[in-house]
Structures are given as structure tokens and as C-alpha cells.
Specification:
Elements lengths: L1 H12 L3 H20 L4 H52 L7 H19 L5 H15 L4 H9 L8 H5 L2
Helix pairs in contact: 2-3, 3-4, 4-5, 4-6
Length: about 170
Amino acid sequence: MKTKINKQNIHYRLRHWDLYLINILGLGLGICFYYIFGQKIEIIVACLAATISISTGLRQYKVEEDKIFKELFEKFNNLYDEKFNERLNEIVDNTLEVDEKLIVDYLNFCSEEYLWFRKHRIPYVVWSAWKEGILFHLRKEPIKRIAEKERIQKESYYGLFEALSI
């Protein structure tokens, strides 16, 4: 467990490495151009202004990515809680009659999650957790039987079945 904490600390400290690198390179270029093009301070200022502008744009891009992830995460978790969680557990526990439409809807829901993961909108760690939950349900009868029938239409599920290795 200690290595995970250390990796997380390193990741946290280096989360803006690209911004640091851009600004350091910009300063380095500014200093080089300062000496190459006649020791004018405006050259350094222009290079710094350009790199700060690039850094700000990159930071804004990352913030937008985080907003998109947050929206998707909340959407998927709320939909799962509202529509699937209780009913799937009842099917697994044999306390609810099998609802094939519900299971197909669940597979479509899972394939949408996987699609957003493939588009790099869902982080790997989140997808891994969701994947384990998906596999839990897909290994249980009668969900397994319906999923195997749906697996034939694999293009309809954006490669979900291949990703799950089932």
C-alpha cells in the first residue's frame, strides 16, 4: 500500500509538469533569442508572454476535460443507481423475474461507458472499477445467458465484449 501512496504523491506533484516544461522552454528560448538577436529585453518578454499564453490555454483545456469527466461520471452513476443497481441485484438473487429489456439496456449503458473510456474521457482507474462491476453481473445467470446472446451483435456494443474478454 505504501508504494501506491508514494506514486500518488509523485503524480500529484507532477500533475502540471507540462506547464512547467513549456514555461522553462519558453524562458530558455527567450534567453537564446536575446543573445542571438541583439540583446533586446523585448525578445525575452515576448517569449514569456507566448509561453504563458500557451500554458493558460493548456490549463483551460485540462479544466474542460475535468468538467466533461465530472458530468459523465455523475450521469453514469446516477443512471446506474436509478435504473439498474437494485433490479440487477434482484435478478442475480432470483427475487425478480428476468427482464431481458433491462439487461439489454444495461449492456447498452455499459457500452456507452466503455465508449467514453476509449475516447479518453473516463480515466483508467474509474473504468477498471466499473469493469469489475460489469463483470460481476455478466457472470451471473440469467444475465450471462442474455449477454452471450447479445454478444453476437458485437458492433452494437462498441467493442465492450472484447474489452471485457468474455
